[in-house]
Amino acid sequence: MSNLETAPEPVSTGGTADVKATPVRELLPMKEVVLGAGTAVRRLLPSFGRRMVGAWCFLDHYGPDDIANEPGMQVPPHPHIGLQTVSWLHAGDVLHRDSLGSLATIRPGELGLMTSGRGIAHSEESPVPHRPILHGAQLWTALPDSARHKAPAFGHHTDLPVVTAPGLRATVFLGELDGAISPGEVFTPITGADVTVEAGGEARLPLEFDFEYAVLTMTGDVRIDGADAPVGRLLYLGCGRDELPVEAGSTTRFLLLGGVPFEEKLVMWWNFVGRTGAEIAAARDAWMTGDSLGVVHGYAGDRVPAPALPTVPLKARGRER
Questions:
Q1: What is the SS3 assignment for 158?
Q2: How far is CA 273 from CA 43, 78, 136, 153, 191, in A?
Q3: N or C: which end of the chain has fewer CB within 10 A?
Q4: CA 179 to CA 54: how far, in whole Å?
Q5: CA nearest 60: which of 5, 115, 110?
Q6: Which tens digits make up the pLDDT trace of 123-172?
Q7: Nearest to 2 by CA among 268, 288, 296, 270
Q8: Burial tier of 107 (Cβ tally within 10 Å: 0-12, 13-18, 19+)
Q9: CA distance 64 to 92
């Protein structure tokens, strides 16, 4: 999913100075954004309180929406550099096309992982026909300098590892959790897991002490380490835990996101993650003046033009604001 805002704000992020080295329970603010064809999303990263969690640098939560008589998701071709996109569904299906020629329908419980590297373009849409309910999350991870200029790639993974405990089931869609490793290629130590806890269930999830973590509740009623985690909000947890206590008042599903704090400082603007304002400006020019970032064939519509650059300089700063 793209950032389709017509006047996106520049985001300077990265570095470890603002990582919470001890456990915290911070409920971060969210922003409502409307994408193509009226799809409304809750933007949770970057937020006014925090820009990254490990390498996770972007998070939209959408639905559940009744799209039985609607076009559903319609995100025209747009470019990316310097990141990976992660498509994760609880309900519905999304048709992915990209400039590599990839064509894949992502369904609930399947990982769509696109590595932009030096540049790629893609589109996302609800297929015709499509399922009546759409509910999911779109996430980005920032690529480290060692990987951000690599050739682009796309992977569609339908067989993902699962961690189980009494009353709990966790699908590891990216990185590693409790020894279970996702088949998706990653470039920093990271965790992305979809956790289901049965009503009345209590569990303790094993964590990496040096990772920072956050939780997005997708459905249900849950307390995370004694703190309420409302549906559609991101609860930031900081570092310094070996395990995470979970108590579910009703059957609950949440995303556990974590990773080693991202040391490099970044500049994020529109659909680009770079290191300098000049690099972002060059990527914008490349998209507007040619096809060097890729061409998506088969989408019934025009590609998305890049917004105007902001008048303020784009500079890399810290992780908080």
A1: coil
A2: 17, 14, 23, 17, 20
A3: C
A4: 19
A5: 5
A6: 999 999 999 999 999 999 999 999 999 999 999 999 999 999 999 999 99
A7: 270
A8: middle
A9: 9
Q: What are the residue boundaries of the structural domains of the chain, listed by start?
A: 11-259
80 is in an annotated binding site: yes
Cα–Cα distance measured from residue 87 to residue 106, given in angstroms and rounded to the nearest whole number: 8
Query: For 280, phi and psi rounded to 5 degrees?
Result: -65, -45
Q: Look up residue 113 and give its two tokens.
A: 């992982």
CB count within 10 Å of CB 296 equals 21
Round to whole Å and give the CA distance between 153 and 73.
Answer: 23
Q: DSSP letter at 302?
A: P
As a whole number of angstroms, the distance between CA 37 and CA 299 comes to 15
List residues bridging with 170 in a β-sheet: 163, 195
The closest alpha carbon to 191, from 134, 243, 260, belongs to 260
* Tens of pLDDT, residues 273-313: 999 999 999 999 999 999 999 999 999 999 999 999 998 88
Q: 124: annotated binding-site residue?
A: yes
Burial 249-286 (b: 16+ CB within 10 A, else e): eebbbbbbbbbbbbebbbbbbbbbbbbebebbeebbeb
Q: Which of 19, 40, 43 is nearest to 29 (CA)?
A: 43
Question: CA–CA distance from 67 to each of 126, 217, 249, 278 (Å)?
Answer: 9, 22, 29, 41
Q: Which helix (H) or strand (E) holds 277?
A: helix 277-289
DSSP three-state, residue 262: coil
Residue with token string 């971060």:
28
Contacts of residue 290, Cβ cutoff 8 Å, sequence gap at least 6: none
CA-nearest of 106, 104, 99 to 152 is 99
> Is there a binding annotation on residue 90?
no
